[in-house]
Design brief:
single chain; 88 residues; alpha+beta; Hypothetical Cytosolic Protein, Chain: A; three-stranded antiparallel β-sheet; two-stranded antiparallel sheet; binds zinc ion
């Protein structure tokens, strides 16, 4: 059996399988991307995509702290879009 890779959500510290989390990447050029493939190069942070957790991340700037950059409303909207796709 293949070992599952686990990562920790920056918002609520829940440990989950990597493929259940949403990966946010800060690319070398400083651009923030929502990484649906899980393969983009750059500094990554994972969030679980639960609505409560997403609100917390936004309010407390936890994602910004994790990636050490400012995150625009547009990026949060993109994350929210991915959550909706996932039925959250
Ligand atoms: Zn979380």
């Amino acid at each position: 059996m293949k070992k599952k890779v686990q990562r920790i959500c920056v918002g609520c510290s829940a440990k989950k399988d990597k493929n259940e989390l949403i990966r946010i990447v800060k690319q070398k050029d400083g651009i923030i991307r929502v990484d649906k493939t899980g393969k983009l190069p750059g500094r990554g942070a994972y969030i679980c995509g639960e609505v409560d957790c997403f609100n917390k991340i936004k309010r407390t700037h936890k994602l910004e702290n994790a990636l050490e950059t400012k995150i625009s409303e547009h990026v949060y909207e993109e994350i929210r879009g991915v959550m909706i796709e996932q039925g959250k």
